[in-house]
Here is the input.
Amino acid sequence: MTTHPDQYGFYGKFGGAYIPEMLYANVEFLQHHYQQIIDSESFRKEFEYLLKDYAGRETPLYYAARLSEKYGAYIYLKREDLCHTGAHKVNNTIGQILLAARLGKKRIIAETGAGQHGVATATVCALKGLECIVYMGETDMKRQALNVARMEMLGAKVVPATSGSKTLKDATNEAIRDWINHPEDTYYLIGSVVGPHPYPDMVAQFQSVISREIRHQLKEKTGNELPDYVIACVGGGSNAAGAFYHFLEDEDVKLVAVEAAGNGIESGESAATTQLGRIGILHGSKSLVMQTADGQVVEPYSISAGLDYPGIGPLHAHLFDTGRGTFMNATDKEALEAAFELARLEGIIPALESAHAVAALKKIKLKKEDKVVVNLSGRGDKDMATYLKYLPKQNG
Amino acid sequence: MNKIQQLFERKNEKVLSVYFTAGYPQPDDTGRILKALVDNGVDMIEIGMPYSDPVADGPVIEHASAVAIANGMTIKKLFSQLQELKIDCEVPLLLMGYLNPVMQYGFEKFCKDASEAGISGIILPDLPVREFRTDYMDIVKKYALSFVFLITPETSEERIREIDNLSDGFIYAVSSSSITGRSTDQAKKEAYFRRISEMQLKNPVVVGFGVRDKATFDQACRFLNGAISGTAYITQLNEGGKTIEEHTKAFVEMLR
Here is the structure.
């Protein structure tokens, strides 16, 4: 299993850059320069400095004693929820804003679903004094009013996407259109390991700090840097890509990706792309896509706005295709139960997205000597309105 | 020679091409719109295959696509409509759309069925040039179709020459760096048209995006071989009070 895609951006048969000519010059320039810029000493220095002093890294690898007792294994939580802005998303936005600044771009655009990537983008744009425009589905803007307010307070302009189902997919379409209309001054800051090459690889590299830290933290704690399992939720797949990255070549480490099953795989209301999708093209890359027989992209569903995406990053499609990754899924109900369980057992309220990863603990046959790392990608503050609705049931 | 190549043999200036979205406004309007365009002397016609996520299109064509999909329009249905129409005219017809629906239909089957339905060319803006050369070019040639590539003001001369070498119909010059249906800086646009014209390409060049009236049509034709109008035509069809035939007549007269 290789970490990098080939020169055209393919992980096996997935990836590439399926973009209209209007984006070609920009994307091609990125393809030829991103690695050189990321590898430069000045970039590395500034990136590491900001990850440490601004985002608050490294994040703890926390041994969850009561959760471990309950599931009969050694369970560690990688606390990405403690990052500045409340999720792993900021690792990537710091990386890309430094890249955008080096490319001389003055105007930053982004798409957002739940608003976490939008907030993380607005944050780094404020940090660097760059204009920020965030596209967000009109429906999501209503559901996530608090994050809209955060972005606006940070100085970003939030533009509603009013087509289709008015959610993440439509926000992404609008961001791509904006980029087509402003090729010279604008940088498109994509929030996940999706989009045309080199975005999936670039975002995975920026998020790979997660697994780099896990390795040395686990070594410190246990004497061995390799866990038996790494578990992460997957929508587009950026936190999973970061958590898996430095373990991809260690075949003994089981990589478990947990998709959102919504109301159940067969319910017609789901976002489990590997279970429901076929190979296709969405937002510039070839991957697994939830679509009709005629190739129209369908609307996914999950209680978690961050997992509500009809595609999946090409790296993950490749992990699924080759069997290197184990793909599981959790329903809305299972994720909610896992969130309440984690809150009560460990005093940690996870984001709904991350709760899907926690929910997988119930579904894996763990041995008592197994070391399991669950990537806790974000905190649950943004989801309190949803959790409140289920609170009486849990207390009853 | 296919009909596109024949067209540019007969006529290499002021070529007027019109785009419409199949399945819009009504699912079975394809035949009426085609006939109206041919009757009014349009030189070439692009039939849009609706797609759920048309990122290169503005709100007008996006809306038309969404309505067409809701109307049940599919590639399969479009081919059966075209088969029934038994098109027998010298006006070349092209299919324009996005790669995903074509990939799901099966690329070779798509080319075969398109050719049998009287289609002469294909435009799929998100099919990469490199993959066209390695995986698709032979199939397209086998069915005597012309594959049409887009170029933009950002496309380098080297790449334009590469595209010229791969093309055998015409080159579609996007008038500005933009999605369909937007206006742009005139002087910049003319400088770009002039630059393309001075490159002396082997293939004719037809301008698309932002061609909405006589002025923008004439501007394109002063430098290049013709122009394509889509958003403006669909907007005209949306205006009430007239039939498709009346709208089409008025639209073509306005451009000419």
